Amino acid sequence: MLELLRRQVGPDVPSGAAYSFRKPGQWPAHVWQIDGEEELYYGIVSYPTACDAPGWLSAGEVSDASRALRVLEAACDCVEPWGPGLEALQCWFWTPYSLCAEKWTLDRPAAALAGDAAHLLSPLGGFGMNLGVGDAASLGWRLAAVLNGWLEPGAALSGYEAERREAWARCDAYVVAERARLMGGKAYVPPLGRGGAYETALLGPCVNGQAVVGHRLPHFPGVRLETRGVTLLLVNGGEDLVAAIAPAFVAACGRIGVPCRTCIVDGAQPAVAVAFGGNRLAICRPDAVVTFLGAAACLPEAVVEEAGLAAEALLLGEKVAP
Q: Which of 143, 191, 214, 317 supports an S-S bond with 291, CB 3.0-4.6 Å?
């Protein structure tokens, strides 16, 4: 099979390549090697709707895998027959899906959905695992906040669904647009620099390297975040800034019992300058999401007040209504 595809496409194609075909006037087809095995392949023919697929296939009659192999061969439009040496192992008719739960959380008893239990996407783009890991990161510190007494369940889970639903919606929009592009036969034009559609869907606003409240802090050298608690970032923090800010921050975290870290970053670094702009300090919660950005050398008033307000200001970035 590998040599046959190489004769069709080119002799220098590496063994792990994916082959894509589009016969004039027909739907796109793709063939991939599985796990680098030269004689094991997975193929797919994409149809806009079930009505465009062969009736026997869309009706669920998928037991005749060899029949499906002939459909794939015709869609790939190879210059020579695939021959009798190929064995079709199995086939199925699959419809892309996009599902999202109506409600992700319950306050009492505290419960939350994450990963595939909360949302599903078609495999295009490979977002499923990424979204699940993001859910776990966002949910993990919230559960820790409840178990450690930093926040009440209602406050801890506040914003979780909206935050992660937004991430799912970005990825879903990309999948829908990309599927339409593939079905329309439009050529892919890679973006110049960062901030392409795929990266934006996956990373959100921080894709351009800017820190945004409510979203993950962009990655740049010289920053170690406190993964068990909160981090105060001081940009160009001289001794005066550290002396003015750090004690109040450490004291507020101490009243709550949440682990904390203070990190001084050099604003002369290009990545830091882009990330913070004119802001001199930031607070990040355990999953690296920014809860506060400030241009002045002072913490939010709620941080230095009583423990309940401090916890909400540090971990949530705003006071949660009772």
A: 317
